[in-house]
Amino acid sequence: MLQPNRIICHYGELALKGGNRNFFEKKLQENIQKKLAAFLPSPIEKIRREYGRIVIELDFPNQKDLEKIQKNLGQVFGLVNFSMAFECDLDLESIKKMAVEIFEPLENKAETFRVSTRRSNKNFPLNSEEVNRQIGAFLVEKSGQKVSLKNPDQTLFLEITEKKVFLYLKKISAVGGLPVGTAGRALALLSGGLDSPVAAFYALKRGLNVNFIHFHSRPHTSAASVEKVFELAKKLQDFQAGSKIFSVPFAQVQKQIMLNCPESLRVILYRRAMLKISEAIGRKNKAGALITGDSLGQVASQTLENLSVVGEASNLLLLRPLITMDKEEIMQKARQIGTYDISILPHDDCCTRLMPKKPELHARLDQVLEAEKNLDMEKIIQDSLEKLEIIELK
Ligand code: ATP
Ligand code: MG
Questions:
Q1: Of the candidates 63, 52, 60, the residue with the CA atom closest to the CA atom of residue 29
Q2: Above 90 in pLDDT, residue 370?
Q3: Lowest mean pLDDT: which of 44-53, 252-261, 301-310?
Q4: Can you tell me the distance from the alpha carbon of 277 to that of 193, in angstroms, rounded to the nearest whole number?
Q5: By the 8 A CB rule, do 88 and 97 touch?
Q6: Is residue 194 lining ligand 1, measured as CB closer than 6 Å?
Q7: Which of 94, 119, 130, 190 is a Cys-bridge partner for 160, taking CB atoms 3.0 to 4.6 Å apart?
Q8: Which residues pair with 117 in a beta bridge?
């Protein structure tokens, strides 16, 4: 059977309007290169930007590699869809010859078909409609299949470009979004739970490069819990290449809060301390935003009052991508991106340690700021910067 020798990648045109086009396309091309480096031996020349699409040249890979390539491309943000394609010269005879070759193996499966042409090369002597009709009529004669414009079993897509014609039968959906790295950088607070990895995924989807920060209470919580957070961050590398995890000891901070502040405000003060430390680390690493997995009302303490009192702790933009999402939607997404199975493993959450009996559900900023005066926040931040561990992910 004839093997496809090109992949045609399509991206969202709307996002690329304006002066940013070159920057976006280049980033996307780079991200594809990185993602496919393991399968394509000399990717630089083989991944080209051509007139509003990216064309990947394949050296007749085997079926297994093709599957891997498809899976990997499906994870590149910025791509809307891609197709395993065949390339031929810019003339009707070549198109006919290739079209028949592609159709032959399908003879018995598809009864009806249609041809759908997009012509970016306006110098090609026939317009899209004429190509559809001529190639359609030719295939009817050759294959005995019938044309159905409304509901065909099979569509033959043709793209007539400046240099070549591409032919393919299927569009494979990719994740959409914007190329990672085009929107800047963020620092995601990763807890080990279900929500924060999904929040990080959505930040990546909008073009942010994401580093991770995790607070642990070792030795009171287990090493396995920290390990689990590393696994989650690694899983998210499916969608970006190269990032860091900042692992921050938090037991001493919790102890100070416990000893010096009202019990009911404990969790709120933990969260505020996390955000303040994250802000300091984020700024040092050129992050333009912090990301958390908060979701309004998901638990009793996630009230507007609490969320706003906690959020006030950071002067760096705080993004909460899941804020309006249902748990069910979040779990579904977690399954889709592969973080669910890791997240549901047991772990000790540093915040459920030493939980107050009656946590505050409607915190007031003045009370919280008053309680915080009993802490040396400057020192807490400084100590954290000194004690943090940095793990580089490839
Ligand atoms: P998750 O499922 O991500 O744990 P959650 O719904 O359980 O979220 P909380 O536990 O209240 O919510 O945490 C809210 C957010 O605060 C988390 O989504 C995460 O971004 C951040 N966070 C909580 N604990 C930690 C931690 N130990 N390290 C880093 N970030 C944390
Ligand atoms: Mg949690």
A1: 52
A2: yes
A3: 44-53
A4: 20
A5: yes
A6: yes
A7: 119
A8: 158
Does residue 210 sit in helix, strand or coil?
Answer: strand
The DSSP secondary-structure symbol of 74 reads T
Give the ligand with the smallest distance to the CA of 319: 1
Which has the closest alpha carbon to 146: 171, 115, 169?
115
Q: Alpha-carbon Rg of the chain, whole angstroms?
A: 27
> How many angstroms separate the alpha carbon of residue 247 from the centre of ligand 1?
14
Q: Count Cβ atoms below 10 Å from residue 30 Cβ, excluding itself.
A: 16
Distance 356 CA to ligand 1 centre (A): 17
- How far is Cα 58 from Cα 40, in angstroms, rounded to an integer? 8
152 Cβ inside 6 Å of ligand 1: no
- Please tell me the distance from the alpha carbon of residue 78 to that of residue 56, in angstroms, as a whole number: 16
Query: Closest by alpha carbon to 271, among 229, 301, 245?
Result: 301
Instruction: Judge whether 175 and 74 are in contact, CB under 8 Å.
Output: yes
Is the CB of residue 199 less than 8 Å from the CB of residue 322? Answer: yes
Cβ(195) to ligand 1 under 6 A?
yes
Give CA–CA dist 195/318, Å, rounded: 16
Joined together, the tokens standing for residue 99 give 């079209």
Cis ω before 219 (30° cut-off from 0): yes
Q: Which residue has the tokens 């590149």?
A: 76
Using one digit for the tens of pLDDT, what is the confidence trace for 187-204? 999 999 999 999 999 999
Mean pLDDT of 43-59: 84
Per DSSP bridges, beta strands 112-119 and 79-88 are unpaired
Contact 287, 186 (CB under 8 A): yes
Distance, in Å, from the CA atom of 135 to the CA atom of 132, rounded to the nearest integer, reads 6
CA pair distance 184, 23, nearest whole angstrom: 13
> What are the chain's domains?
6-173 (3.30.2130.30), 185-393 (3.40.50.620)
Give the rounded percent of residues in the chain with a pLDDT score beyond 70: 94
278 burial via Cβ count (<10 Å: 0-12, 13-18, 19+): buried
Q: Where are the alpha helices (DSSP H) in the chain?
A: 21-36, 43-46, 63-73, 92-103, 128-143, 195-205, 223-235, 251-260, 266-284, 304-311, 327-337, 340-343, 365-372, 377-387
Per-residue pLDDT of 124-135, as tens digits, reads 999 999 999 999
Strand partners, 160: 119, 165
